Amino acid sequence: MLESSGRLIHHRHRWVLAAAAVFVVIAAVWGTQVFGSLKSGGFEDPHSESARATALINERIGPPAGDLVVLYQSASRTVDDPAFRDAVTGTLARLPRDQVRGITTFWSTGSPAFVSRDRHATYAAVRLSGADVPARVKTYDKIRDAFAAPGLTTLRGGTVAVNSQLHEQTSKDLARAEMISMPILLVLLVVIFGSVVSALLPLAIGVVAILGAFTALRVATMTTDVSTFAVNIITMLGLGLAIDYSLFIVTRFREELGRTNSEREALTRTMATAGRTVGFSGITVAIAFGGLLLFPQMFLRSMGLGGIAVVLVDMVAALTLLPALLAVLGRRVDALRVLPRRRADREGRGAWFRLAHSVMRRPVAYAVGVTIVLLALGAPFLGIRFGSVDVRALPGGAEGRTVATALDRDFARGGPAPIDVVVTGGVPRPQVDAYLGRLRGVPGVTGAEVTDTGRDAALVAVRLDGDPQSGAARAVVRRIRTLPAPGTAYAGGETAQLTDLLSSLGHVLPRAALFVGVVTFALLFAALGSILLPLKALVMNALSLSAAFGVMVWGFQDGHLAGALGFTSTGNVEASQPVLILAVAFGLSMDYELFLLSRIREEWQRTGDNTGAVASGLQSTGRIITNAALLLAVVIAAFTTSGVSFIKLIGVGLLVAVVVDATLVRALLVPATMRLLGRANWWLPRPLRRLHARVAIRESA
Length: 701
Description:
alpha+beta; Multidrug efflux transporter AcrB transmembrane fold; 10 strands; Mycobact_MmpL; cell membrane; transmembrane; MMPL family transporter; transmembrane helix
């Protein structure tokens, strides 16, 4: 099939290039408008009890007063000064009434809770219009400058402001990551591809993939909510996978040009071999992202949508646009060569061939040694503690984080209560008071009071002793949910949301892992014609992922990378991030696995010599995989400069996974285990042999 595709594209390459040009124009004009349709937040389970509590508060009481907290400070004046009061109340009175549904201040309540201990600061709790947090973030973005009071320091915090600041920070980080990585990539591309012309090919594929993914994402926003963080995954992988696929196809095209005088035949053969591998790889990586679609959290689903979109567009561009460009260039693909060809390319007996034979002479030592190293790197993961995204994800000095710190440090009651219980059913006050008594009697609860009422509902703020994200705090939520309550009670707030998030992830993750594992096994079976190699690939991936997770816990939860990377360790790991890293790293690992094993399979089918096939396959792909991993690592490493701590975490986790997978796993562990298995690598019972004959996409027509 792909062989025929290669012939057709070579014959009709002008049509392919014209179609690609039209697509790029449409994507650049229409697809890039997706940014206005993306939403913030999305880390919670929308079907959970805490989400129901939030919805009831919005419907029956109004947006939470702590959604937006505006802090006013003065070094010389106190809240008792009429000038201080007039500056705050006058500013708040001028806010547009259609955007602001309510304001609570010291002067409207007389409550000392709104005044700092030194009386030089106060805050206003503001309710904005909007049905949910993303809608209120848009309202906030329109009027945030209107909160500035003359003569006072004005700082904005709370859920809405922090979400807006996270969005703004990630946009800045994205631009900075591109500025850092692009010059390095350009130099490395020229060095690795050897010529200026060939180095430009992955950039062309990457641009098409990113624009195409933005277009697909905009289509998705017409039917579902999509998180703003999906842009990060598209930008990170769009160019990275374009480099992987281009490097593999261009390298094979050069090899085939050395074997034939026909550029058409070289392209046809390239598509039948390297193109086949790229096709399987793209589908496998997309399947890994597909597992994220099973999760109800908007953040994870959006990452899945963005990942699937960019991988599939990358794959299609590599199998259509790239061959069309090679058809135009032919042997001129090496034009403007800056480095001579390596001798090993011509002889096929280079350093990678010698490394493979070294590994296979001592396979047990290499297999055991590498496995011990990977397990040691992964050991910290056994002590992981899960948390949720909070204001500490922002860099130190960020406005929302400064507000949260000031509330905790300077005000008697600190910030918003970590648990909000909404009681519905028009319950009489005496019954509510009795319920408050039961809440106060729960171990770990330091206070419970009705803070607001609305249509047949009362809002109870529950305060805790200790970290609201700790296991003890989550135990309090579970205990509260078992208490007899008047009417119907729903527990929400920060602690309840984390409790529900962990429950949701624990429920969905096994199903998602089973789905990805089974489908990936089937694809590898179709690609490789073996049942042991797909199983071994899954085990190899688990080992490399364990190393990435261990470094993630060691560096972020335990704080060992806090100084080097400039973030505040919270003592836990945001619960959804390991799931995301699992999906992305699993897909990228399978990418390299297929590149290596497909070439080994070619040699095995040609010679029937397992040891020689492994050595030749590693020689043919070792440098390619290492170079591809290096280029992808540059792209990923740039994201560790982000000001948002969980974006740093994603960057570090994926960087470790890529480096470990391309070195310890592919270069050492895979050859060692294949040597130990010998001919059993390719064992296939007769019934499965017949099945494979029907489902396999063959290398030649």
